[in-house]
Amino acid sequence: MAVRNLRIDGDDILSKKSREIEKIDERIQELIDDMIETMHKYNGVGLAGVQVGVLKRIFVIDLYDNNGPIVFINPKIIKTKGKQEVTEGCLSFPNQFAKIIRPAEVVAEYTDRNGKRMQVKAKELLAQAICHEYDHLEGEVFVDKIIPGTMEYMEE
User: Fold this and answer.
1) Is the pTM value of this prediction over 0.85?
2) Nearest-angstrom CA–CA distance, 26 and 30
3) What are phi and psi of 10, to 5 degrees?
4) Which residues pair with 52 in a beta bridge?
5) Is the N or the C terminus of the chain less surrounded, counting Cβ atoms within 10 Å?
6) 133 close to 95: Cβ distance less than 8 angstroms
7) What 3-state class would DSSP assign to 137?
């Protein structure tokens, strides 16, 4: 396992659409382990492949709730419900936070790291994280969706 370099604001790769993963092989398993380690090193809730320079449809999420990290391979958001105003940040936009509108609930389908197709119904922070990371796979970043006037910059 290794901590990978984060791609940050201004890197063109963040605006590119990620490609489907054809097979879950040793390289993908290594990528998953590296992404989880990288996310944890920077205290992130989620991390998409594109944020470590890999244009594959994969992201990891950890709510630090004793359930451990969830690996989403080739995810699809199949249903959304309601709206919530949330404050968001992103490892690719260090020390920047802003309010945005996200669905209050989502239903997502994905393949786990063992190749099993799964479905999750998510609310609150998990719903927010799934939408945020899914946007990365589409080449979208949270700063494109902020409520005007809500951006804050935090000191390191």
Assistant:
1) yes
2) 6
3) 100, -15
4) none
5) C
6) no
7) helix
Q: Which is catalytic among the residues 37, 133, 140, 155?
A: 133
Tokens standing for 22? 């054809």
31 membership: H or E segment, kind and range: helix 26-41
Q: Both tokens of residue 98?
A: 């802003």
On whether the CB atoms of residues 92 and 7 are closer than 8 A, the answer is yes
Phi, then psi, of 116 in degrees rounded to 5: -90, 130
Tokens at residue 107, please? 């239903």
Q: Catalytic: 140?
A: no
Are 94 and 82 spatial neighbours (Cβ–Cβ below 8 Å)? Answer: no
pLDDT, tens digit (0-9, with 9 covering 90-100), for 97-154? 999 999 999 999 999 999 999 999 999 999 999 999 999 999 999 999 999 999 999 8
